[in-house]
């Protein structure tokens, strides 16, 4: 049996918005049809539940760190990335009970905020129990990190154990960031996660110091390695930006998410497009403002026609886990149209995670979740815009 939902506007994402459109939904949440108001009238549909607002698909968060939820409010803003990383390492230790309770609250926050699927970074197995019980679909990205080339084999074996520990949940081994993964470890990751069926992510150009390190072996990362007790005498500057230095190490077949992109240049984008045909570019504006107090060049990415997704990062680096909040920042500071933001927040993210057959758009046969957005004004997100999960 189907129920019928309508609103002032229905945004299928995969098709044009429908004024007073109608969505037919089965008892298990599967969409059985989507009609215009005129089609609904011709079919003489009865019992339609009408909402004052905009119906949209469930949102997709392509970059989160559930494991860091217990650090909410503990790290000051505007530390810069090297300082932030150092504070995370100093403060992330906590009891398993504290970590799990914080993750449960964070998971619930995302669910209430209309998020139906999340790409989550994990270094440990801590989040498995929360994910198994969650109403959110999770794809776990198990980060492998180690800048010492001699430890690549040892590190990849530990990552394999962690990945397999997440079964039956979907999990993939991925590189953490260019400044924390040796060329040898990149090679090991490529062997395991390089197929066309995989989704892979990497933190990219989140701080100016990342580029400085690869271009001339200068900047604050040298202090970070010193803090970590790492001898990086083996490393030689490439004279190129970090993206241009590491991207050739990644598989060109896997769906690959570049996360943050705060200091990505036009030359970097052109290089990336020539090098890799399955790239997705994730924006986490709330975290970028929290850590570096700077946003990526969004107009550059839009003009280049790249595929953009949205992420929240962690509660250690953001004030909330809300894709709507990220959309608000981008509309306020970068004036991105609502329909474009919605594509980034839904179908693009689902496509990256490889779950577009279920999530990302209001289409017949999908079970994408349905959200109601209220208080949009003239097609714009405002400070008063809210989201409510309908299905």
Automatic annotation (TrEMBL):
<dbReference type="InterPro" id="IPR011059">
    <property type="entry name" value="Metal-dep_hydrolase_composite"/>
</dbReference>
<dbReference type="InterPro" id="IPR050287">
    <property type="entry name" value="MTA/SAH_deaminase"/>
</dbReference>
<dbReference type="InterPro" id="IPR032466">
    <property type="entry name" value="Metal_Hydrolase"/>
</dbReference>
<dbReference type="InterPro" id="IPR006680">
    <property type="entry name" value="Amidohydro-rel"/>
</dbReference>
<keyword id="KW-0378">Hydrolase</keyword>
<dbReference type="GO" id="GO:0016810">
    <property type="term" value="F:hydrolase activity, acting on carbon-nitrogen (but not peptide) bonds"/>
</dbReference>
<dbReference type="Pfam" id="PF01979">
    <property type="entry name" value="Amidohydro_1"/>
</dbReference>
<feature type="domain" description="Amidohydrolase-related">
    <location>
        <begin position="54"/>
        <end position="373"/>
    </location>
</feature>
<protein>
    <submittedName>
        <fullName>Cytosine/adenosine deaminase-related metal-dependent hydrolase</fullName>
    </submittedName>
</protein>
């Amino acid at each position: 049996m189907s129920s019928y939902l309508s609103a002032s506007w229905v945004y299928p994402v995969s098709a044009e918005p429908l004024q007073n459109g109608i969505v037919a939904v089965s008892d298990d949440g599967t969409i059985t049809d989507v009609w215009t108001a005129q089609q609904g009238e011709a079919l003489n549909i009865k019992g339609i539940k009408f909402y004052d607002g905009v119906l949209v698909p469930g949102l997709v968060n392509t970059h989160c760190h559930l494991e860091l939820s217990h650090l909410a409010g503990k790290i000051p803003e505007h530390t810069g990335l090297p300082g932030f990383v150092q504070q995370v390492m100093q403060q992330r230790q906590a009891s398993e009970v504290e970590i799990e309770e914080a993750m449960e609250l964070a998971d619930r926050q995302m669910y209430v905020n209309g998020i139906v699927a999340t790409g989550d970074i994990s270094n440990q197995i801590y989040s498995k129990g929360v994910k198994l019980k969650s109403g959110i679909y999770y794809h776990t990205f198990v980060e492998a990190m180690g800048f010492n080339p001699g430890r690549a084999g040892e590190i990849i074996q530990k990552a394999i154990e962690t990945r397999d520990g997440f079964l039956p949940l979907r999990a993939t081994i991925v590189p953490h960031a260019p400044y924390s993964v040796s060329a040898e470890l990149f090679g090991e990751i490529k062997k395991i996660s390089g197929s066309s069926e995989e989704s892979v992510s990497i933190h990219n150009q989140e701080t100016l110091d990342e580029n400085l390190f690869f271009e001339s072996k200068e900047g604050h990362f040298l202090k970070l390695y010193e803090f970590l007790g790492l001898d990086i005498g083996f490393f030689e500057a490439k004279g190129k930006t970090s993206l241009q230095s590491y991207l050739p190490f990644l598989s060109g077949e896997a769906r690959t998410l570049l996360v943050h992109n705060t200091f990505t240049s036009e030359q970097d984008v052109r290089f990336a497009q020539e090098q890799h045909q399955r790239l997705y570019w994730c924006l986490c504006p709330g975290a970028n403002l929290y850590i570096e107090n700077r946003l990526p060049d969004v107009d550059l990415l839009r003009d280049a026609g790249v595929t953009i997704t949205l992420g929240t990062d962690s509660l250690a680096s953001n004030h909330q886990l809300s894709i709507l909040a990220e959309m608000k920042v981008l509309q306020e500071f970068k004036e991105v149209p609502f329909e474009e933001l919605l594509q980034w927040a839904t179908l693009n993210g689902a496509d990256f995670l490889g779950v577009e057959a279920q999530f990302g758009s209001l289409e017949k046969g999908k079970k994408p979740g349905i959200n109601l957005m209220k208080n949009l004004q003239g097609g714009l997100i405002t400070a008063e815009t809210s989201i409510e999960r309908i299905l």
